[in-house]
Write a structure and sequence with these properties.
The protein is built from five helices and five strands. By secondary structure, the chain is α+β, with helices and mostly antiparallel strands.
Length: 200
């Protein structure tokens, strides 16, 4: 049967907790509300900082390539293996699903709402980083869909990283993919957003 335990760094036991509380916790620990709240706030701060960094890098890179590279010849970064070339993508990540722009915009909004709900019980730093990557990437592409032509909810996302024999993408896409991979790894390791580790 699966067992669960709180990872190191979660709130310390409440001073003076008795044997009865210890028996109920299964590990002789109880969570002090004030300490738990402070710990969660630090994890939310980490999530927001990661998201902000991803968002600013994505936004800055898009502004730069649109101003300097759009309607120009591609820049060869590593010969033909990696180039920078601007395209306006109205589909999903990696230029897929271009007929579903409004639907994809709503999905991005839904992802942001889900992350906000998960953050209410967030005690794990790895999960904070993963969710921050997802949040920053979602906001990055959502900004394009809201404010770029041809219109609100239908804007084309600026993609510019073009590896050979692969779809063109941007830093927001990279953040979303890296965040998703990290979440899969954490899930396989049995770590929940609240810091609980499940052991078989």
């Amino acid at each position: 049967m699966a067992k669960a335990e709180r990872i190191t760094g979660t709130p310390e036991p409440e001073p003076g907790a008795g044997a009865e509380s210890a028996a109920e916790s299964g590990e002789g620990k109880t969570v002090e509300p004030e300490q738990g709240t402070g710990h969660r706030k630090r994890r939310i701060t980490a999530l927001l900082l990661v998201a902000l960094v991803v968002y600013l890098l994505d936004l800055g890179s898009k502004l730069l390539v649109v101003a300097k590279l759009e309607h120009h010849e591609p820049i060869q970064v590593i010969g033909t293996l990696l180039q920078f070339t601007v395209i306006r993508n109205r589909g999903a990540a990696f230029s897929m699903g271009e007929a579903l722009t409004i639907f994809l915009t709503l999905i991005a909004v839904a992802v942001i709402v889900v992350i906000a709900r998960i953050a209410r019980k967030l005690y794990s730093l790895p999960w904070a980083i993963a969710l921050g990557l997802l949040l920053g990437g979602a906001f990055g592409n959502l900004t394009d869909r809201l404010f770029r032509s041809p219109g609100v909810f239908e804007g084309g996302v600026v993609d510019f990283i073009a590896p050979a024999h692969f779809a063109v993408f941007n830093l927001a896409d990279s953040g979303i993919v890296c965040g998703g991979i990290l979440i899969v790894i954490l899930s396989f390791r049995g770590l929940d957003p609240d810091g609980t580790v499940h052991k078989d």
